[in-house]
Write a structure and sequence with these properties.
CATH architecture of the largest domain: 2-Layer Sandwich
Strand content: 15-25%
Low-confidence stretches: none
Structural class: alpha+beta
Radius of gyration: 44 Å
CATH topology of the largest domain: Heat Shock Protein 90
Mean pLDDT: 79
Number of strands: 9
Strand order of the largest sheet: 5-6-7-9-8
Length: about 400
């Protein structure tokens, strides 16, 4: 009897151990393993079979929690990826705008600066080609393109500053992919760049004009007055020498008078050059203004052909070029008695070629002309431009003045 009771107790203990292992310990181990997998962001977990006891309720709750965590984590990853893409795009846009603003902060804006801005903008997604054009009543129109234009339609953005239209920015590409806000901001930056370029030219132009006017006043108040006084005194001296009947002295006085006349004429040419007053800071418009003034002084026909890039020519270089053209045209009018004068300003890549051609009487380059020094001054101005000046002429064959220099 005792042995049977002991056997029953032992069997009951073994049953309880087996039941506890299968119904409690194993499910708890599965829950622990599932929690560890969730910690490792693995939401595909194995849970114990659903039962109607406390562990079953816990298992069902754990499964629901794992499913919700998986959904939340998936949405969170998508949001993080979306926000990361937005931040990356915003960062690229800020870098692009910063690079463009930096290029426009140069002391003197040139065509190269605007070309670099368009090249940087081509790195935007959805942009295949760009065209920047500037329109201003006080300067020549100019246009810069970048990329490879196609037959696709152009999208146009106006360059507006304080209600004033300064030009347009046109682009080709995918309107869906391209960042319209960024392109609008770029148009605003370029509008300021175009305005600043014009303001730079105006300021430099005014400074050069004021400096030349000051020099002209100083020359007039000093040397011109002295030469006028000497001319008067020489006239009086010649009158007295005639009364004394001194041929040798008269000859010397005549020579002094001739040299004074030459010096005075040269000074007047200098004063006229210094007093060259141009209202336009733009080269093309200033050239037209100067030629119109010369045209009013002669019956010869003056023609102008110009395709020169005026965007990169500063005030000092502009003045040297205009003075060379003015001197060559004045010579053709006064000395060559030309009927037709043609002024052409052509650009080949980054090299400028300027030619002043007339059909006048021409002259021999071997003959010295002590009363005319304009050719030497043109050579000096050419050297200041870093260019080369050639004069091609012969008696009865007209004259060609050709100037070439780099725009860089």
């Amino acid at each position: 009897m005792g042995s049977l009771s002991l056997g029953l107790i032992l069997a009951l203990v073994l049953f309880l151990l087996h039941y506890t292992q299968r119904r409690i310990v194993n499910p708890l181990n599965l829950l622990v393993t599932a929690s560890q997998r969730i910690q490792n962001r693995d939401f595909h977990i194995e849970l114990p079979p659903s039962r109607s006891n406390e562990l079953g309720v816990l298992s069902n709750s754990f499964a629901i929690m794992a499913s919700e965590l998986e959904e939340l984590y998936s949405n969170l990853e998508q949001k993080i990826e979306s926000e990361t893409q937005k931040l990356t795009k915003a960062n690229r846009s800020l870098n692009l705008l910063y690079d463009c603003s930096t290029l426009l902060s140069s002391t003197f804006l040139t065509r190269e600066r605007f070309e670099k801005i368009l090249d940087i903008t081509l790195n935007m997604d959805g942009v295949d080609a760009l065209s920047l054009s500037a329109h201003n009543p006080n300067q020549s129109d100019w246009e810069i393109t970048a990329g490879e234009p196609t037959a696709a339609p152009w999208h146009t953005l106006p360059l507006m500053l304080d209600g004033e239209s300064l030009g347009t920015l046109k682009w080709q590409g995918d309107e869906v992919i391209a960042d319209g806000v960024l392109l609008s901001n770029l148009a605003a930056i370029l509008a300021r760049g175009v305005y600043y370029n014009h303001a730079q030219k105006q300021a430099m132009h005014l400074a050069v004009m004021e400096e030349r006017a000051t020099l002209a006043r100083e020359l007039h108040d000093s040397i011109a007055q002295s030469l006028s006084y000497l001319k008067i005194q020489t006239s009086l001296l010649k009158r007295h020498l005639k009364q004394l009947d001194a041929p040798d002295a008269n000859e010397i006085a005549e020579e002094i008078s001739d040299q004074l006349r030459i010096a005075y004429d040269q000074l007047r040419e200098l004063l006229n050059a210094f007093r060259l007053s141009l209202t336009h800071a733009d080269f093309g418009l200033a050239l037209q203004e100067m030629l119109d003034a010369l045209q009013s002084q002669t019956e010869a026909e003056i023609r102008m052909v110009s395709s020169l890039d005026t965007l990169s020519i500063d005030a000092q270089r502009q003045m040297h070029i205009l003075q060379i053209i003015r001197e060559a045209c004045a010579n053709a009018i006064k000395h060559a008695h030309a009927n037709q004068i043609t002024v052409s300003c052509i650009q080949h890549n980054h090299q400028a070629s300027i030619a002043i051609v007339d059909d006048g009487v021409g002259f021999s380059l071997q003959e010295e002309k002590p009363d005319h020094y304009g050719l030497n001054i043109m050579q000096e101005r050419s050297a200041m431009l870093g260019g080369e000046l050639k004069i091609i002429t012969a008696p009865s064959e007209g004259c060609q003045v050709r100037l070439t220099f780099d725009l860089n």
